Amino acid sequence: MRVLGVDPGLTRCGVGVVEGVAGRPLAMLGVGVVRTPADGELGQRLVAVERGIEAWLDEYEPERVAVERVFSQHNVRTVMGTAQASAVAVLCASRRGIPVALHTPSEVKAAVTGSGRADKAQVGAMVTRLLRLAAPPKPADAADALALAICHIWRAPATDRLQQAQAAARAARTSGAPGAARAPRRTSGGTSVRKVTP
To answer: Which residues of 16-49 are buried (b: 16+ CB within 10 A; e: fewer)?
Structure first.
């Protein structure tokens, strides 16, 4: 599985591509940051993020895209920019029909380091180790993007099984349509009567 991880941000949007399957060594195919000027006009900055992500999708053709789920922070301005960049990443992938998964920061930290409270240095160190890199990717946004991709590869089998189970349950609920056999119904005389709708 080839996954593009996106650590969303307006000034620095981390991107990283990892390939592999759960339980086997993973390989980093590329890592970087899409940058926009902090004093730029919002619309133009979002266009720049879109173009950057599109370029990564063109070059690496990932099967999945993993984006950090935006959560509430004290700095509303920061979280708004993060949410906007996140939406651009989801849009770019969805436009191409690429499945998108959202992972919270604590999910990513727990998957990569074993602790949902790990700091950025610990995440960077584990990403370096897991991908057998010579040094931690810089800046931290790039390492976070790789961590997102790793998290998704490791969590994908369980997530896929859950989605399949949910789809089967939905199908079972809707199979009560006309033509489906119903359970036997007891009459007052104690005999069983099975009613089948034509």
So the answer is: bbbbbeeeeebebbebbbbbbeeeeeeeebbebb
- The string of DSSP codes covering 109-138 is HHHHHS-TT--HHHHHHHHHHHTT-SS--S
Half-sphere exposure of residue 171, counting CA atoms within 13 Å on the CB side? Answer: 6
* DSSP class of 41: -
Task: Give the alpha-carbon dihedral of 68, 70, 76, 82, to 10 degrees.
Answer: 40
Rounded Cα distance, 185 and 128, in Å: 64
Specify the amino acid at residue 41.
Answer: E
Residues labelled as active-site residues: 7, 68, 141
Q: Burial level of 97, CB count in 10 A (0-12/13-18/19+)?
A: exposed
Count of residues making up the chain: 198
Amino acid found at 140: A
| Tokens standing for residue 79 | 């979280």
Nearest to 53 by CA among 96, 86, 92, 80: 92
pLDDT of residue 160: 66
Q: pTM of the predicted model, to two decimals? A: 0.81
Q: CB neighbours of 136 closer than 8 A, spacing ≥ 6? A: 124, 125, 127, 128, 143
Interacting residues of 67 by C-beta distance below 8 A, sequence separation 6+: 5, 6, 8, 86, 89, 90, 100, 101, 102, 103, 148
Give the pLDDT confidence of 139-193 residue by residue, as tens digits: 999 999 999 999 999 998 776 676 678 878 888 998 865 544 444 455 445 554 5
